[in-house]
Amino acid sequence: MRLAFLLLLIASPAWAWEPTGQILAGLSRGAYVEVRPDPDGASGLIRAAEEIAAPPEVVWAVLVDCDLAPRMAASLKSCRILERDPAGRWDLREQIVRPGLMPRFRSVVRSDFDAPRRLRFRRTGGDLKILEGEWRLAPLDGGRATRVVYESRAASPYAVPASLARLALRRDVLTAMAALKRESLARAASPR
């Protein structure tokens, strides 16, 4: 089975997964991450949630910052904007990923923005066979905090044992969620 060995993947709106009450109750202890095989067997599904004590606008600014992305994801070596909508509704990004000891690969992703609520993305080129997903941001505590929900479906360009891929993805997504939280809190705390 081929699964993604990638870190900042993002999800399909068709799934519309929302964390359950039990998951939400546990977010005070840290991010929730679930990685499992896609029912069709061609890809993997990643679902994650986190609550961040920063306004959605601050979390959004961190999320869409291509220059910051390599510092937030260990396997992401570069992020470059290839094309951008002048009105700010979408961009096309090239990302170079080097997951652990695996060879590097390239992905070209179109991200569609509904700021500061939703970022949808999908593969338009590169080495990945499947890559689609979504980040959703919901205000909490009167807009002083944000619930982040992430979903993605991806397939690796390499054959990777499913159990190893799921472990690596879980670790990478936890790391990315922690980095998103850390950077968002730092920006929220800095004077403007």
Automatic annotation (TrEMBL):
<protein>
    <submittedName>
        <fullName>SRPBCC family protein</fullName>
    </submittedName>
</protein>
<dbReference type="InterPro" id="IPR005031">
    <property type="entry name" value="COQ10_START"/>
</dbReference>
<feature type="signal peptide">
    <location>
        <begin position="1"/>
        <end position="16"/>
    </location>
</feature>
<keyword id="KW-0732">Signal</keyword>
<comment type="similarity">
    <text>Belongs to the ribosome association toxin RatA family.</text>
</comment>
<dbReference type="InterPro" id="IPR023393">
    <property type="entry name" value="START-like_dom_sf"/>
</dbReference>
<dbReference type="Pfam" id="PF03364">
    <property type="entry name" value="Polyketide_cyc"/>
</dbReference>
<feature type="domain" description="Coenzyme Q-binding protein COQ10 START">
    <location>
        <begin position="52"/>
        <end position="181"/>
    </location>
</feature>
